[in-house]
Each structure stands twice: as C-alpha cells, then as structure tokens.
User: What shape does this take?
Amino acid sequence: MTTIGFIGSGHIGSSVARAALSKGYRVVMSNSRGPDTLTDLIADLGEGATAATSMEAASAGDFVVVSVPLKAALGVPVGPLAGKVVIDTDNYYFERDGHIQELDDHELTVSGFLQRHLVGAKVAKGFNHIKWSEILSDALPSGTPGRRALATASDFPDAVNLVTRFFDEIGFDAVNIGPLAESWRIERDEPGYGGTFDAAALRAKLDEAVRL
Assistant: This one.
C-alpha cells in the first residue's frame, strides 16, 4: 500500500489526504506545531491516517505533498526527500510571505524555488490552482465528458507520470505544462489560475499566459 507524506495539514493538504484515503492510500500528516496538534484531524480522516513530525512524514512517504505557506518552504526537510517525488501546492502571496526578490524578478518560479531547496528531490507542481473544497466536490470518474483538469510541471518525467496517475485516481485529468521553468503559467493571476476548465480549455488558458 502506498503511503503519502504530508508536510502541511491545512485545507489543501487535508483535502488531498481525504481524496487519497478514499482510493486506498495511507497518509502521514504533519504540521509545524507537532503531531499532538493533529489529533482531531486524524480522528476525522479515519483509518489509514497517522500523525507525525515533518521529518517523519517526509521519511514515511513513498511520495510527499508539501502544502505550507511559501515563507515556510525553506523549513521543509531536505534529506528524507532525496529521490522522492514532491508535489508542491504552494503559491506566492507577497502579502503573506513577504517579498522574495527572485520571484518578483521572475528569476524563479514558485516550484523552482522549492526545487532549489530540495536538492535531490523531484518536485512537481500540483493542486495550486484549485480551491480546497473543490478537490473533493469536483472529482469525476475517468472519461467523464468535461472532467476538470489540473496542471502539473516538473523537470522529471517520472514525477509528471506519478502526478498524472494520482490526479486521475482522485478524479481529475492532468495537463503537463512542461519543466518547472514554465510553471509560472499556472501561478497567481494567470488566466488558468482558479478557474474550472477541462483539459482543452486549460491548455488554452496556459497558452494565453504572459510573463510580464
């Protein structure tokens, strides 16, 4: 049975965990405050969910979901994630995170920022342009006409393949943007960000994106 480690257990992390549990995954949840603060969440998630430290969740996961404010991303443990696929749900909100010059200057994308920190990991973009409540409510079986699509991007083809399979399992089509350098196309304020699109419409929105 595949285990997913979660670094960050807020709305997005816990919603992805619920979706994964419904498909037979195990999940190991963590946050910045320690496993004792996750008692209620673990009880709510039910069988297959456990709480741990961030280091333990990173070690336990066959792959890992990072869902923390970007200002906390440099605290994500590096060593245990080497060689693993890491799904990055983060967005850059300077109002919350403070200004990060390399992002302001478009020298890096948000996921590229995390990839640089996680030396040896295989970062892939995912879940950054969907509301947490829609991760469960918008899921549809594979092949359903008009099925919602989610974008991913990675410098590693095996990471894209894993995310594509996972999206499909939990109810979404996948659109591959390409390498992390192109993942700005689904970042905040771009045409595809936050909307509900099937795969063809999402690709069109990605093509409309302009790097200012």
The two ends are 44 Å apart (CA to CA). The chain has nine helices and eight strands. Residues 157-170 form the longest helix (14 residues). The chain has one domain: 3-208.
